[in-house]
Every structure is written in C-alpha cells, then in structure tokens.
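Slide 14.
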Amino acid sequence: MPQFDPQKYAYPSRRNVVYGRHAMACTSVPLGAQIGLDVMKAGGNAMDAAVAMAAAMPLLEPTGNGLGSDCFALVWVEKEKKLYGLNASGKAPMALSARLVKEKGFAEMPEAGWLPTMVPGAPAGWAELNRRFGTKSLEELFAPAVSYAREGCPVAVNVEPQWEQDSQRIAKAMKSDPAPHAYWWKTFMKEDGSPYKAGELFRWEEYAQTLEELAATGCESYYRGPIMEKIVAFSRETGGYFSEEDFRSYHPEWVEPITADYKGYTVCEIPPNGHGITVLMALDLLKGLPLSEERDCADTYHKILECIKLAFADTKTYVADPRYMKTRVEDLLSEEYARCRRALIGDRALLPEAGDPSCGGTIYLCTADPFGNMVSFIQSNYTTFGAGVAIPGTGISLQNRGANFSLDENSDNCLAGGKKSYHTIIPGFLMKDGEAVGPFGVMGAFMQPQGHVQVVVNTVDYHMNPQEALDAPRMQWIGGRHIQLEREVPAHIGKKLAEMGHEVEIVNTNISMGRGEIIWRTKNGLLVGGTEPRCDGTVAAW
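Slide 15: predicted structure.
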C-alpha cells in the first residue's frame, strides 16, 4: 500500500488527511458526503452510499451535474476481489447527424440548446448500480435528496461563482433561441433574474417529485414512462430532436476496466468511449523514463507533460464509441507502441502528432464501507449547467455532452444518431497485488486524465499522502506547445520550461474546476482520505 507521511504538507492547503476505521464518503459539497456516511452508518454499503450521494448532488451542485447527466463508476466488490466498470453515458438522438448540424451553419458542435443534448444515462446508472449491488431501496436512498429539495439547501461557496458565470452563457443563448432555455432560467435564477449566492436557500419541489417517481419505478419512468414523454414532448415543442425510441432503447453497460502497471501498482480506468485510456498511455510512457528525486523541478514537469501530450494526441484522434473505433485498445496500450512513442521524448518540448498504433461541468464522489467495498463515481453535465435546457415540471436539466462530437466525417468520433460521444469524465481506481488501494478522481474535462496522472505520480513516485497529492500544484497541456502552470509552481520551473521550448502560461486560479477526492486503504485496514484543498470538499469518516 502507498507509503506516506500524514504530517507532511508541502503545499498551501486548508486540509489535513482524514482517517476512518469503518467507512468514508468524499465529495465536493459537505452535505453530499454526510448523506453517504449516514447511509453506511444505517447499514448500507458503499454502492448504496454512492447512489444516495449521486441523487443529491444535482441539487447540491447543479453547476456540475443534473438529472440529465451521464455517469460512470468503478466498483470494488471485496468478497469477489473484483473491480466492475459501469458506463452510463448517453447516446445521440437518432434524428441527429453531422450533416444536419453543418446545414444549420455550425463548423463545430455548439454547447447550448438542443443540438448537443443526448439521452442522459445517469438515472439508469443509479438504478443499475442499485439493482446489482445495492442493499437498500431507491426510496430510502433518494429520501435525503427529496427532503433537502423540499426544505431547501444552502448554496455552497464553491458553487456560487460557477452559477453566476454560466448564467451569462445561457442568457446569451436565450437571445438567439429563447424557447429551449426559458424554463431553465425560471428554474435556476431568482425572481429578480439574478443567480443564487452562497448561503441562500435553494428549494426545488419539482426535483423532489421526480425523484419520488424515479424511486417508485426503478427509474423506468425516465426511459419508458411519463417522464420520458415530458422530455420528448418539450423537445418537439421547442426544436429538439428526441423521439420516444431514443429513450426506450437506452440501457447502461457493464464494462471490463482497462489497466496499466505503474511501478508495482495497477491503475484502473473505464474503457472508451471515455478517455481514461489517456491516463494509462501516459503512465506507460512515463514508467520508462527516469524521474528526478525532487518533484518540483523542470525535468519532472517536462517529462510528465511530454507523456501527456503524446497520449492525448492519440486518444483525441482514435477514441470514440467503441462500436466505431478502427483502432484497438490493446494496440494503444501495447508495450511496443509505448516504446515507439517514448523514443520521441527528449529535452525539448514536442509539437505532438498522433502515432500509428497499428504498427506495434462535473462532480466526483467516492465511498468505502465496513465490508471492504469501494466506489469511484463521476457524474457530469459537461460545461457547468450543460445545454441550458430544463424540462418543465420535472427538475431535469440536460447535459451537453454531444459537444464532444466531431463533425469530420472521417473521424471515428463523428456525430451520428444513436452514437456515444468521446467522453471526458473518468473515475479512477488504484490496486496493488490484486487488492484494492482505493478510488480517486478529479474534475475538469480535458484536465481529468492529466490530473489522474499527476495524482498517481505524486502517490507512487513521491510518496505523498492523499491530501498532499491533491494539494500539489498542477500543470496542464492545452495544445501544441502551450502549457499552463498554477501560480504555486516555483518561478524557476516555469523559466526553465520556457527555455526547453514550452509556451508557459501562469494561471492564478485552479487549473481544474475541482482538485478531486481520494480514499486509500492503509496496511492496518484504516481508511485515509483527501479532498478539495481550497473549496467545500469534505471527507466524512466513521
């Protein structure tokens, strides 16, 4: 298991690691973590806790997820010593095509309105996780969220700025096409037209009623009942593309996690259509390079960035709905291909291009229960409030995950009806010698795989405790030779990286929307967790 010093905090933070004996629940809003811990204290398992938290988070953090989101999960079942993968990402309406979008005057997928919306997968994902591994009913698991929706919950500090900023984006979209967005505005803005502020109560009766109906029907109403009918009817009334069959034909999928060995640890991710494979490809490159004993030096930053660049160049080219991928996952993860790509890395910044492998808005939560089970769970709208489309009378706001489609008909990820898009949300899980170490995850779209790589390196190579691993200043490759460094990165590192050919930008805020959460199991069986160092993230421990 990871070796670390719980007293060492080399970077600015408001947190210490938190230990627990029996159970732990972590997420970005304190009430969410409390809900998960309460479920496990009442006898529920880690999967029950994850479902209860996931159902509450659209209320507690609507700027990251909603009843119209997608989700993914990695689920460790202790009695089986097995890790399961759940893909509950949505699919494009059958009526949509790249040609239709281009005929409407778009050169790339928009982020607002009906065009980027897809059949949401999250409610089906909750029901499926509950069906296969749950011990409590959905009525019981959704009850805390229903109660908070009716009584009102205070807006969290970290939610306020996102609420204010994204309302401006949706206001702009309303000017050109008001019909799809008008009800979103009525739902998420106060009567005076201003966004909610931290500490103000947000009540949402429609959300409570919809959760009750979902619980009573095992979420079937969303896909094959009255809720589905409301979504499709509003789509038809306001220029959308959904049909009843788009929903009736939707089902989440259990998938086999993909893995890579990194210096004695097994790093686990969800396979495509998500880009978790980027993490594994970057680590495959990195493990063959000598890293400095000191993390905070230009050589370490340079090598991590170059590995991330090369991995992303490939995954942005080849990753798509697996039914449409021409490139095999096994080829992308092969040792031979890693050696070919690693040979490109020198002491100058690369301008990355895809190789040829045939030659060789989000919330994250994690849980651990007294029975040894663990869940790594992620749920997202994509861009903050998503498409800015809310369905009247339901509490459902729709994601805009279709914005990740390409309109290039030669791309494996080109938009087509019934197709899943390239997906940026990825839950992570770490194992060693066939045993669970624990779940981890970060938020922030294309930063997510880069954050996963940095968390693993911080943990395995530099022996940081979970909190320090999240606190450490981050780097991000943006494109070409352009990189971002957080302001806490020592100035001499940025200067040296510029001399090595990187185009360096120093940012004054967190690079990623959320730093993430971690739960590790220690050698003596205790749980130890870390969370957001500068926001409202909470590790609730028992």
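Speaker note: The longest strand covers residues 70-77.
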